[in-house]
Protein: UDP-N-acetyl-D-mannosamine dehydrogenase
Amino acid sequence: MSFATISVIGLGYIGLPTAAAFASKQQHVVGVDINQHAVDTINRGAIHIVEPDLDQVVKTAVEGGFLRASTQPVAAEAFLIAVPTPFKGDHEPDMVYVKAAAESIAPVLKKGALVILESTSPVGATEQMAGWLAELRPDLTFPQQAGEAAEINIAYCPERVLPGQVMVELIKNDRVIGGMTPVCSARASELYNIFLEGECVVTNSRTAEMCKLTENSFRDVNIAFANELSLICADQGINVWELIRLANRHPRVNILQPGPGVGGHCIAVDPWFIVAQNPQQAQLIRTAREVNDSKPHWVINQVKAAVADCLAETGKRASEITIACFGLAFKPNIDDLRESPAMEIAELLSGWHSGTTLAVEPNIHQLPKQLIGHCELATTAEALEQADVLVMLVDHQPFKAIAGAQVQQRWIVDTKGVWR
Ligand SMILES: NC(=O)c1ccc[n+]([C@@H]2O[C@H](COP(=O)([O-])OP(=O)(O)OC[C@H]3O[C@@H](n4cnc5c(N)ncnc54)[C@H](O)[C@@H]3O)[C@@H](O)[C@H]2O)c1
Ligand SMILES: CC(=O)N[C@@H]1[C@@H](OP(=O)(O)OP(=O)(O)OC[C@H]2O[C@@H](n3ccc(=O)[nH]c3=O)[C@H](O)[C@@H]2O)O[C@H](CO)[C@@H](O)[C@@H]1O
Structure:
């Protein structure tokens, strides 16, 4: 059975590229979002988020009549839910958006439909979603009651694309398919195979949920290892970048890179879902989160020490000192400031410092509102010329291209090893 209409619920960084990928294969896709601005922008053939190559695919899909957006759910043969799953309170997963999305599609569900949850979710979330749907539609049968014979098929299929490379990874990556029954997995594989060049790897929904959390926790733990090494090396007077380069010459060692901390809305969030469900067992995963979350504060103390040195040596007053922060984004060569440790550092530093704080971010054109009145947006050249203390926070390509001779300052805090 094919899918006459595919409906993607949530048209953000994951939902919109996914909707566009189906539409690019001449599938009729209706994207649903509660954000009227996003819906209007997409219906004009434009995009409201930044992701390389997405604009052209969306434009072609909308102009070709294969993709349209709406604020109202419509009947479809397949629903993919890609709404936010942030944490709340003491780092517990907040499933309120998933629940709202399930409630919104329940009235339009028809016998034979496939419902896929793509949002990163705690273990058991798919069964929970199936429970919500079953309560709202007692006239239909669901996998938890009817197994293979269910009228509605449900699966958990996590997304693992790397922001900045979404349009390539969406198609090329292997995809984990966690059906609530083997029939659900088969239907979900059939759906993704419309555009997937990677392989569909089939499992159950709970393993698929844990798989997504595991991937990001693995990376978080490994970054925490590098960040912890950077603290030890600073204390021991060892260049951590050289150390990691040397250690990585071992055939079975592959250490990641330290930095100002871990940002973005995935790696800094998802490991907490494991900790929330298994607080006793998840000791290493929790500690990694704590190590990475504490790194910005360590960096700020390094900057304070550099400023103190600068004051002592120059005899200037603190109000006469200029600090320049290089980079605000959560990782190199993007404009995304969400959960960025560089932003946190710039914000806290500019609140503490009585002199001028410059922010250099080549990927944005105006200061984010948290920094307005505290920082000035400067070009690389202005910052190199005016600042007493340089703080390297994001290894954007233009910063890496700065020749050593251009960096005259003696007080440098380099969290990315760019000016080593
Ligand atoms: N961005 C990534 O790199 C990435 C990668 C893998 C997994 N994920 C996961 O995918 C999910 C979505 O992430 P994202 O980055 O696309 O988020 P996003 O914030 O960019 O997009 C989510 C969209 O859902 C919409 N929305 C919220 N509630 C809705 C509802 N009830 N009905 C319809 N639309 C609704 C929002 O308006 C928004 O446009 C999250 O669980 C996230 O953890 C994200
Ligand atoms: C397992 C994995 O790969 N998951 C990816 C990840 O995407 P991401 O863009 O969030 O991931 P990163 O590029 O790792 O960046 C995260 C932060 O870590 C910092 N960092 C990184 C490497 C390093 O050596 N040292 C560091 O300090 C970096 O600066 C930034 O702040 O989650 C997405 C959503 O679930 C996944 O879909 C996507 O596959």
Notes: The chain has two domains: 5-198, 239-414.
